[in-house]
Amino acid sequence: xxxxxxxxxxxxxxxxxxxxxxxxxxxxxxxxxxxxxxxxxxxxxxxxxxxxxxxxxxxxxxxxxxxxxxxxxxxxxxxxxxxxxxxxxxxxxxxxxxxxxxxxxxxxxxxxxxxxxxxxxxxxxxxxxxxxxxxxxxxxxxxxxxxxxxxxxxxxxxxxxxxxxxxxxxxxxxxxxxxxxxxxxxxxxx
Length: 190
Fold this sequence. Notes:
Distance between the termini: 26 Å
Structural class: mainly alpha
Shape: globular
Number of strands: 2
Radius of gyration: 18 Å
Strand order of the largest sheet: 1-2
Helix content: 40-55%
């Protein structure tokens, strides 16, 4: 909740951010995630960055507000947590279908266009369970179409003229820097 409230109140992600300031803001968002012990690759962080980079589906989920009192962080968090709750079940259902005990494919059905838009960027690869004496850890491996989440960079990359030798170097460099930042150990910022 604190992370979402910071994204709304401090970073004011309801408004577009200048392309010149986006990477600096990305670093600040990651610092907040680190301070709150939230994985840099958690859907919460990824969707916040998606808002920063103009993803309309992510913005529909977050519904950032100018008035902090009207921002509903609980609703945004509930939508984001659908990703981590649905993906393991999707794989489980489809795996059972391959064994002849269910459906071969599963889809999440909702009227929430924002949630559907971001869910298509997450593709579950594997789920594993590690049971300890008093704890059960679930690991979900997910392939993320991160370039699609960062809509402003994806649009620039897809619309560039093919004949120009190095047309999207600045945007691609920014994308690469974001990926590197998210893969660094917690607390390591360049």
